[in-house]
Amino acid sequence: MPRLTIDGIPVEVPAGTSVLEAAKSVGIWIPHFCYHPALGSVGACRLCAVKLLDGPLKGIQMSCMLTAQDGMVVSTVDPEAVKMRSLVIEWLMLNHPHDCPVCDEGGECLLQDYTISGGHGSRRYAGKKRTHRNQELGPFIQHEMNRCIQCYRCARFYQEYAGGSDFGVLGSAGRVYFGRFADGDLESPFSGNLVDICPTGVFTDKTTRFRARYWDYELAPSICPWCSLGCATVPAARQRELLKIMARRNDAVNGWFLCDRGRFANTPVNDPARPRTPRVDGREVAWDEALDTLRERLLEVVEIYGAGSVAVVGSPRLCLEGNLLAADLARLLEAGFLCYFPDEVSHDRCLAAVSILAAGKTASLADLRQADLVAVVECDPLAEGPLLALAVRQAWRTGARVFLVGAGAAGEWPTALAIEATRVATLAGVPLAEARRPVVVASTGSATPARLAELAGQGGQLAILLPGPNAFGAALLAREHGAVPLAEALASGRVRAVVAIEADLAPELLAAVPLLAVADWQPTGLVQSAHLVLPTTAWVESDGTFINFEGRAQRFRRVMAPGYPLKGLPERYYGSTAKPAPLHPPHLHRQEPPGGDLRPAGQVMADLCIRLGGDTLEEPLSGRWANLRDLDPEGEGMLIS
């Protein structure tokens, strides 16, 4: 390991580490634009200049392009290096518009930070600025090309990292342009990462344009709930409105990036049609009345039809705490049926997958990115877990062979990511034994339990896509508590009441059930047909835990208070007065914000358990789950066995 000195501090780093990263490891930040840990170094911006005072090299060097060597003596504060960096900032600002007050990147802009820290505050160049025409890139990305500093991050991510082909760099010298050949929607399912990766305001989130500054946001570490991968996110909210979602670094899971499905997913949370008030038989009521009514009706069903006449249904999208308390509710009711999956297919496949993965066969996305052979068996990862498909591309870029196995293997997704894949009929055609780090990718959407067991016996690690953000946790609890598929419970003919908690079920499946109580935050068809509705908070409005497809438990924190966004309050909250101008709150006194009388699903279950004679509300993460209480929500999570 090379040893060097940076600003008088001795540093020892692994071989191959750049001087820029070596400096970062001891808390010395060298300004840079073009370098990004996920993309590597290209030396395009020339801002990371340092001076080597002694050692194998001397003089001004670009720290991102310079590999650390024994004996180097590096200065980041030498006057010559400081002057070099200040001149780079000045020439970058020659054509940059002075539009910080109206730029959405203001407050989180690297160019803004480095310009101020570099001491550049006055403009010497009196000539005309070079200008560009902006492009229309679709509904999500706003293009402001005049702010570009030619760092090449956008093109390198889009083409090299994500495999896109409809966006890149055009022109040369001072006429370099980053965009498309013509206006049009960006085609990559990862195009939203241009917003995060651009160090200036060339690419900003069009869905939240001119809505807030960085210091206005309510922020907290969170987890994406739209597939089973468990990507780390930072949702940004203001005035009870979820404005946008940003990627959060987790090297074990999503790395630095996020798919567009997870990034632009604020609409369901802000949906004015969300259930906001408890309802009994279509009538809005207070929480106490709703819970007391549900208790009375459930006890009446048990009294008339006997123990075992109630089904309590959790789900793969319900957090671990809610699913744990669903099991407590079923026990107190002597319900007879505890269910976490709607049918036998999903139930059996998820339990089989978890049994295999908990035995140590699981592969993380980090393992997949480092694999030297990937076999994708009869599934479409771009549809079921987009960041997994992106991980396959990173493995392919470093030399891994990619195989599509079986007649049911989707053949379009490798083309979308510019991956060269070989199609084979069976797994026998994949040379797993020749690989050192093989990973087999499958999905419970297509692989039967027998097929999963067969794949587990082939050697290598397994990555099995599951049907929800907490499907792994739901399957663990189903195995632990002896849960059954809901279809099996209904087929018994004994079920007279169903309590469904954030479960995605077809309304017609439960049309004949005399009592249907639904706790959910989405306006599903099941909510519309329920006899009792208990409105719950979305994941950004509460704390909780998800266990992802590999069995990694990750905590998420509350980002915002529940309630109607201040911008879009329904007319009924203004009483008989005329609706005032936008952003003006109603002149009514209330305990909570309009539409904010929601409760986390776990709390709803706990309140019902107390009414049924259970213990007072306790921390649901107890027993084998107690070690998750102190899990750092900003960390990599914890693998569950």
Report on this model:
The strands form seven sheets. The chain has a seven-stranded mixed beta sheet. With 641 residues, the protein is α/β, with parallel strands linked by helices. It is 26% helix and 18% strand. It has 19 helices and 28 strands. Helix 10 packs parallel to helix 15 (449-456).
Oligomeric state: single chain
Low-confidence parts: none
For the report, how would you describe the main beta sheet? 7 strands, mixed
Fraction in helix? 25-40%
Described by the principal axes of the CA atoms, the overall outline is globular
Extended strand count: 28
The radius of gyration over CA amounts to: 28 Å
Tell me what portion of residues adopts beta-strand conformation.
Answer: 15-25%
- The end-to-end distance, rounded to whole angstroms, is 35 Å
Average predicted local confidence, pLDDT: 92
Order of strands across the widest beta sheet?
15-14-25-24-23-16-17
Helix count from the secondary structure assignment: 19
Structural class comes to: alpha/beta
Mind sketching the topology for me?
Layout: E1 3-6, E2 9-12, H1 19-25, E3 49-54, E4 59-62, E5 73-75, H2 79-92, H3 110-117, E6 141-143, H4 153-161, E7 168-170, E8 177-179, H5 193-197, E9 203-205, E10 218-219, E11 222-223, E12 232-238, E13 241-247, H6 260-263, H7 267-270, E14 279-280, E15 283-284, H8 287-305, E16 310-313, H9 320-333, E17 336-339, H10 344-361, H11 365-369, E18 373-377, H12 381-384, H13 386-397, E19 401-405, H14 413-416, E20 421-424, E21 438-443, H15 449-456, E22 461-465, H16 471-481, H17 486-491, E23 497-501, E24 515-520, H18 525-529, E25 532-535, E26 544-547, E27 552-556, H19 601-611, E28 638-639
Parallel strand pairs: 1-5, 16-17, 16-23, 18-19, 18-21, 19-20, 21-22, 23-24, 24-25
Antiparallel strand pairs: 1-2, 3-4, 3-5, 6-9, 7-8, 10-12, 11-12, 12-13, 14-15, 14-25, 26-27, 27-28
